[in-house]
Write a structure and sequence with these properties.
The structure holds 2 protein chains of 2 kinds. Chain A is of the alpha/beta class. Chain A has a single domain (16-131), classed as DsrEFH-like (Hypothetical Protein Ychn, Chain: A), CATH 3.40.1260. Chain A has helices at 3-6, 31-42, 78-81, 94-99, 116-124; strands at residues 17-22, 48-53, 89-93, 112-114, 128-131. The longest helix of chain A has 12 residues, at 31-42. Chain B is of the alpha/beta class. Chain B has one domain (2-100): DsrEFH-like (Hypothetical Protein Ychn, Chain: A), CATH 3.40.1260.10. In chain B, 29% of the residues lie in helices and 23% in strands. A 5-stranded parallel beta sheet of chain B has the order 4-3-2-1-5. In chain B, helix 1 (15-22) links the parallel strand 1 and strand 2. The longest helix of chain B is centred in the last third of the chain and has 10 residues, at 84-93. Chain B is globular and about 30 Å long. The mean pLDDT of chain B is 97. The chains are: A alpha/beta, B alpha/beta. Chain A binds chain B through residues 24-29, 55-56, 59, 62-70, 72, 74, 76, 99-101, and chain B through 7-9, 11-12, 33-34, 37, 40-44, 46, 62-64, 66-71, 74, 84.
Chain lengths: 132, 101
């Protein structure tokens, strides 16, 4: 990457490509919620952020979550608010949806559904990968 | 007879597979927490549990389905949705609980 492309216009800081990789279902473990919190904190640093949802991570985005009866916070509406933090690149792997009988219509937010091959390329382009 | 509970997603761990291998004919399996994903139609894991529905009694915990946005209409036929009261009933009706983690 050329030096001038790395420079932020305002602060002059380096902009890196950060990808958060989500592979766990929500609620059963704390990974999904922790990832979301780190994404929101990280959004303050004006980096080039993307989120990848593969394997059971796709369940984090399932529509119609209603957690009243399990006594936990339903954090799924937060994925819809990511846009306000300039987190706009949400990638979901097609193969993971297929294995679970899900489609893009079953998700709470508009995402880019990509193949395994495309996801592999996206990962390869990153400077920093954070896994949850 | 044992009540088996499975709380892991069948796509993440092999708990459901192990449970189905060890459950005796006539015993019961209750899918809870992330285990509820194994109760859904149209998944890669569907055939695994469908094959067991003849010899086992299958249940899934409703509140855990709801929390995850999994609709009751999409639960595999032959799996009964129960609430927390149903969970208690199943527990007392069985000799012991085998909790597959």
């Amino acid at each position: 990457m050329a030096e001038e492309d790395m420079m932020d216009e305002e602060g002059g800081g380096v902009i890196k490509k950060f990808m958060y990789v989500n592979r766990k279902a929500p609620y059963g473990t704390v990974y999904a919620l922790e990832s979301l919190e780190v994404v929101l904190i990280g959004a303050a640093f004006d980096q080039d952020v993307s989120l990848a949802f593969i394997d059971d991570g796709v369940y984090q985005l399932a529509k119609g979550q209603e957690t009243t009866r399990i006594g936990m916070k339903n954090f799924s509406p937060t994925y819809r608010a990511l846009e306000m933090y300039d987190v706009e690149k949400l990638y979901v792997e097609q193969e993971s949806l297929d294995a679970r009988g899900l489609s893009a219509d079953d998700l709470v937010v508009t995402v880019q559904v990509v193949s395994s091959a495309e996801m592999r390329e996206l990962m390869d382009q990153q400077d920093v990968l954070l896994n949850f | 007879m044992l009540l088996h509970t499975v709380n892991k997603s069948p796509f993440d761990r092999n708990s459901l597979d192990a449970c189905l291998r060890m459950a005796k004919e006539g015993s019961s399996i209750l899918l809870i927490e992330d285990g509820v994903y194994g109760a859904m139609k149209g998944t890669r894991a569907e055939s695994m549990i469908k094959g067991a529905s003849g010899k086992l009694k299958l249940y899934v915990l409703g509140p855990d389905l709801e929390a995850r946005g999994m609709r009751k209409e999409n639960v595999i036929d032959g799996i009964q949705v129960v609430d927390y009261g149903g969970f208690v009933d199943l527990t007392v009706e069985h000799q012991a609980v085998q909790a597959w983690l």
